[in-house]
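Reviewer 2 asked us to include a model.

Predict the structure of this chain.
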Amino acid sequence: MSLIGGAIASAIAGAAAKVGAKMVGKVVSGVLGERGGQLAEAVVTSVAEKLGVEPEAIPDAAEKDLGTAVWKTEAEMPEMIALWSKGLDGQFALLEAETKEGLLQSAWRWGWMYLLALIWSCYLLVFPVLAVFGVHVERVDLAVLLTLTTWFISLYMGGHTVKALGESAINAVKTWKDGK
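Predicted model (structure tokens):
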């Protein structure tokens, strides 16, 4: 839930309680758990669009405007929930199809996952420990390793996962630079 910060969720939940937007309030309060994160992000995005601001500026919005935006989003909730539900159905259908394929056809996913885990473990743990004992092992170039990992993540987990990782990295760098 990259768009859902404490202040954003609190502002939307507070406005939802005031205007009687029960579905919006439940979604941003985390009642749906981690799986509801995409729906919560859609709600935050919808409220921000109706306010004409970036999601980070939602807590600073005027109370009346925020209430109106939340109420309008509440009216759209049945369609948003239907789309979210359809996405979950697609995920379950994919999982079912993968289990029907059998071990051999879906083994590439597990193989790549364990291979990447092994390579990262060696890169970060084993090879540096060996270097302490005087054994030098040529490591895979970090750019190549990151590229392979990103390809696997995007193929197996979808492009939105890579997008979320990229946004997290950008935010971490911004925070790091602002802290200096």
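The chain is about 80% helix and 0% strand. The CA atoms of residues 39 and 80 lie 7 Å apart. We have added this to the supplementary material.
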